[in-house]
């Protein structure tokens, strides 16, 4: 794994935004909604309005929820083949002090749930 500063200009990176089932309970499990309820609800609503597998939203730079601690940035978004998911390797970890800008958001149906992943267009390290 590389320091976050070393990968901030890299292309094709991907980050997990959350999954539909995370919004069902009153209390979020932050590994399942690492950027919090508000962002995940916005993504879910946009996904319902745009039923394609990939869409884009005009989002400001985002930070992970403080309760999450850290989240992995991967070399590519996952692919589902049959009953298996294949993930890109972990290249860095995003902590609450850094921000990222998101590009295309992908809806991935897997294990009777919908998972949302986004390409990372920019990593903004802490000052």
The portion of residues forming beta strands comes to 35-45%
Secondary-structure-based class equals mainly beta
Q: Total number of β-strand segments?
A: 8
- What is the mean pLDDT? 87
What is the H/E string? HEHEEEEEEE
Account of the protein in words:
This protein has one domain (4-124). The longest helix is centred in the middle third of the chain and has 13 residues, at 37-49. The two termini are 21 Å apart. It contains two helices and eight strands; from the N terminus they run H-E-H-E-E-E-E-E-E-E. The strands form two sheets. A six-stranded antiparallel sheet has the order 2-7-8-1-3-6. It has a two-stranded antiparallel ribbon with strand order 4-5. A hairpin with a 2-residue loop joins strand 4 and strand 5. It is mostly beta strands and 127 residues long.
Give the gist of this structure:
The chain has one domain (4-124). 13% of the residues lie in helices and 39% in strands.
Give me the secondary-structure topology:
Elements: H1 4-7, E1 14-19, H2 37-49, E2 54-55, E3 70-74, E4 79-81, E5 84-86, E6 90-95, E7 99-110, E8 113-124
Antiparallel strand pairs: 1-3, 1-8, 2-7, 3-6, 4-5, 7-8
